[in-house]
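Note to self: keep these together.
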Amino acid sequence: MIRIEEARFEQVAAMRQVAIASYADTFADFNTPENLQAFLDTAYNLPQLESEFYEPGSKLYLALEAETVVGFVRLRKSNEVVAYLGANAIELQRLYVLTLAQGKSVGRLLMEASLHYATSNQFEWIWLGVWEKNYKAQQFYARWGFERFSEHTFWMGDDPQVDWLLKKKISGS
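Structure:
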């Protein structure tokens, strides 16, 4: 049975392990080991993730099977897309599920938590970046009604890659 709960600070290290494992499983075949490691060392070092936990305007939900973290989603306020969507948007920055937990509705439950948070906090838009070659994730987001509206460069080590920016309308105005 999978349950979703708001993360507690002491769970950040377990969430970090999910981030590293799921990221490596998804992207290792498409990147050099050096670029993958450089990214993981920068984005997923423990002090970085601990700092993000307390970042104003962010929310972190974990998916647990028994007491094991098998997935998570991180939402945050950022100004990156103000020119496209205005200031009342929340970024779905990360949604990761361990390979062994895929097919257990973890992604659906995390997306439901994200959309509930966005709706409850009266955001107009929810948006995210997804690698242009991550077709499985693109299909998942399309099923939830996300549409492409732009793109940006994402650095994987020293390799510039293209992320598609996707948006979903939450409320009117």
